[in-house]
Amino acid sequence: MQPQLDDQMRLKLFTDMLLIRAFEERITQMAHEQGRLPGMQITCHGQEAIAAGVVRAMAEQDVIVTNHRSHGHMLARGVDPGAMMAEIMGKEGGLNRGKSGTLHLADPAHNVLMTSTVVGAAPLLAMGAAFAQHYRQEQAVTCVFFGDGAAAEGSVHEAMNMAAVWKLPVLFVCESNCWAGAQAHDVHCPIGKIADRAPGYDMPGQVVDGNDVEAVYFAAWKFFQYCRDGRGPALLECQTYRMRGHGEHDPQHYVDKDELAAWALRDPIDRYAQVLQNDSLLDSRDVLRQQAVQTVDAAVAFADASPYPAPEEALDHVYANPIGQEG
Ligand SMILES: Cc1ncc(C[n+]2csc(CCOP(=O)(O)OP(=O)(O)O)c2C)c(N)n1
Ligand SMILES: [Mg+2]
Known about the structure:
By secondary structure, the protein is of the alpha/beta class.
């Protein structure tokens, strides 16, 4: 079977990226307003094509396990932006009732099982989800997102090894964004391409231009089919660039300005706008961008209107058997 990429889907990829960018730009703005957002804010500026391309290539029954840079994955999956924004603000109306904040977002209704911000933990946690899919013969795949820095963690090696030995339906998606915190890729990784490790686990691996949304979509689509066919895991490395600091607290003084400027020229949204314009699918992106901004305005309004959770509810919905109510 060949992947579907009709005009409607192509526009979806584009509007997904616009929504993600608008959402992250708002997070950036609010993160610098005193007292507006609790905790560390980590955005995916510049990495939108990976979220849109991979997530749109998934089937409904497939599952996502994600990491600290998760907003784009969730928005592309159709998670409600208002509930996400409220969660990021720690509000009662949030996805997880204000208890997860930005770093532990989960939306089981959309098969986004969890966000783990323990670097390298997500691939190992994904093993449980993939094992369940395999055991129940669900024809479903677990897609796990992790960074190039995470690829150096022992847990990622264990996950890849186990997935390959047990032929689990896992697509490992490495977002190689040239940085892990303030460490450049060559400081923590002796090889240029993480995907070169795939043969060592007896799984297929591929490097794709992570700023080319269609290339990401086709590569992910092919691998999702491979995993769904019961052939085991696969590794997709999407090469991109982290366009902002590690988080909004980080002014990225250590980043070479020329390098940043060169990557800005490869912006995934600008590039795709050009492609769609050349194919007469897009007149101007201003209307679509404005719609994305309005969606984010509505999300912020919803979140602002939501109360903070009551202190006495702090332990509700945290434990399967709340302390004091065991059995
Ligand atoms: C086990 C562990 N070590 C360190 C950290 C601190 N930390 C958070 S994100 C990060 C860098 C991760 O880099 P990468 O995996 O490339 O993801 P990126 O941030 O570039 O998306 C580090 C070191 C952590 N959260 N967990
Ligand atoms: Mg990285």
